[in-house]
Every structure is written in C-alpha cells, then in structure tokens.
C-alpha cells in the first residue's frame, strides 16, 4: 500500500539525509525504523506526508504519487496518513476531547471546526476512541493537565479519528519511562492489528523495536542497511547499523523480556479462565 522509490532528501544546508531509499510496505504491516542519530529516520517519515519536501523520488500511497500532487490532493491524501509525534503536539489549552476531534479538521470545514460544530458521528467516534485508549474519564481535562503517557494516548486517538490507512509514528516513546513506553508501543500495535493499519515507527530503542515490530528496517547515513525480521538483528547487523558496541547484552535482554511478556500473558489468560 506504500511504496518509496529512490527517495532522496537534500536539505538546503547540503546535508543529504536520504540517498535513494526504496521500500515497500504491505497493508497491515508494522515496521520499526531504527538507526543512529542523524541516520534520516525522521526525514524519511516526514517525506512520506510531505512535512518535509522530498528532493527527488516517489512516494506511492496506493499507486498515487504523494510527492507529485498539488495542495488540494495532498490535503486529501494526508487524511489517509495519521501521524503520532514524539512531543505529542497537542494544543495545551484545549481539552482532551477537543484535541482528539482536531484530528477531523482535514474533513470538517474550517468555520465549522472553528465554531466547534463537529458532526455527532465524529463526537461519538471520539468517545469510542478515548474509551479504547483508556482515557474516557479524562475527556474534559485540559491537555496540559495530563502525564506524558496520557498525552501520547490522546495523540494516538487524534491520529486514529482521521480513519487513516497508514500511521507515521515519530519516536513515540522518547519522552516516556520504560514501562509507559511499552504500554504505548503495545497500544499502537494492537490498534494497527484491530484496524488493519500499516505503520512506520521511528524508534530509538532497539529492544522495543524487536519486541513490537513485525519487520525492522535499519537506516544509516540515509541508506537502508538492514531490512528483515526482528530476530535477524544479530550483533553483526547491529554493528553495521550503529557501529561497534557490545550488542550481546541487548540481544539477551530482548530474549528475557519476550519470555517475561509471554509468561505474563499466560498468567493473565490463566486467571481469566
Ligand atoms: N531541517 C534541517 N535542515 C538541515 N539539515 C537537517 C534538517 N533536519 C535534519 N537534517 C539533517 O539530516 C540528517 C538526518 O536527520 P534526521 O533528523 O532525519 O535523522 P534521525 O535519524 O531522525 O535522527 P534522530 O534519531 O537524532 O532524530 C542529519 O544529518 C541532520 O543533521
């Protein structure tokens, strides 16, 4: 459903952040994008919805080249791509509900949204989503009264109310503690499964990428240096992506964590029976 062809981004400063990236993502696939700082992960994600303008190449979303369309068509295409940000990008003085509904702005006319006249179906869907992300009781709270994890849940609900086919997720857990990070990653992945959404998740944490990604793409200096399954991230591959480091400890930790996750899941299932 998404195909990047020879995607190049050269910033005005001369930095070549993407050097001809080719990537194809089928419907429903959750892809974790990893790589060292400056590898081009954020640039790649932002070139897909043209928050950053690609210098060359194509971005096909269901065979329409996003990189080549005019402003009106781009607005329509962006509705199909929900975005989740590291710093949540909420409007602090608005309520949780208003922030979620702002995800419908691409559909509802400006004046209508300005006067906060969202259609009842949108409001009903916003309540359903808030319930799904565990924030129903916080609908009327102001965004600036929430914790980081709660803010990210609002960000997720706002992206989903667009009814997208693709989620672009830019370091969703960078400002969160380890436990909250896992909860957020689990929630994003569950929602992708429930809704058949594809996702590209730019994530710094290799362990989280391996635990939650179905496919891992490793970027280095604007080029893909690994594209494969999570269990293919051997210490040699990690050295290719990030450079020399003692990777065995990270790999052992992932295996331990996965065992722990399975045991917890079994315990929960057992308790339910
Ligand atoms: N607005 C910009 N103007 C000029 N150069 C930029 C700009 N944004 C990014 N770059 C450069 O492009 C390259 C890729 O940056 P990008 O932010 O995409 O990497 P990243 O992998 O997301 O890094 P990080 O993990 O640190 O966020 C870097 O060399 C960076 O300095």
From TrEMBL:
SMART domains: AAA. It comes from the Bacteria. Residues 254-273 are annotated as: Disordered. Residues 2-246 form the ABC transporter domain. InterPro entries: AAA+_ATPase, ABC_transporter-like_ATP-bd, ABC_transporter-like_CS, ABC_transpr_PhnC, MetN_ABC_transporter-like, P-loop_NTPase. Residues 254-263 have a biased composition (Acidic residues). Keywords: ATP-binding, Cell membrane, Membrane, Nucleotide-binding, Translocase, Transport. One of its GO terms (cellular component) is membrane. It holds the Pfam family ABC_tran. One of its GO terms (molecular function) is ABC-type phosphonate transporter activity. This is Phosphonate ABC transporter ATP-binding protein. It comes from Pelagibius litoralis. The gene is phnC.
